[in-house]
Amino acid sequence: MDKQYLKKRHNVWWVRMRIPSDAKEIIGKNEFCRNLHTTDIYEANIKKHKEIASMLEEIEQAKRNYEGMKDKLSKEVQISKYAEYLREAKITTPEKDADTSLLEKELSLKLGVKLTINDKNNKGNIKIEYRNIDQREKILNKLGRG
Fold first, then answer.
1. Full-prediction pTM beyond 0.85?
2. How far apart are CA 80 and CA 74, in angstroms?
3. Closest of 132, 140, 7, 12 to residue 66, by C-alpha
4. Distance (Å, rounded) from C-alpha 146 to C-alpha 135?
5. HSE-CB for 86 with a 13 A CA cutoff
6. With CB atoms 3.0 to 4.6 Å apart as the test, which of 44, 58, 77, 110 could cross-link to 13 if both were Cys?
């Protein structure tokens, strides 16, 4: 009897499939595991094919969605960098004071991303740069959104 992709838990058969390494980060887990709601190995062997096909489709859809977002983000990054270049070309900023530089470094380390603080006359802004949506969500979670 073919038991590939099958796993028995508490006398019930489950289908289990590892997620390919190129999709693990996109999907956010290492494997799919679904209950087949049967204790019969023969029935489980028949049901598993539909679940495996569904899992494979989920992986492919996640990859397609990620590629679409990656292209979109890359265009946004290009526009952002060009805008930053234009701003810097017109305005030269003075050196930051020691407190601002230290705060900038500490926040960058804690959040794990590039962070810039622009301080002018005790007013300013903080710029946080992230690579993708997942990294943005991790930053938000570290900042207390949960």
1. no
2. 10
3. 132
4. 14
5. 6
6. 44
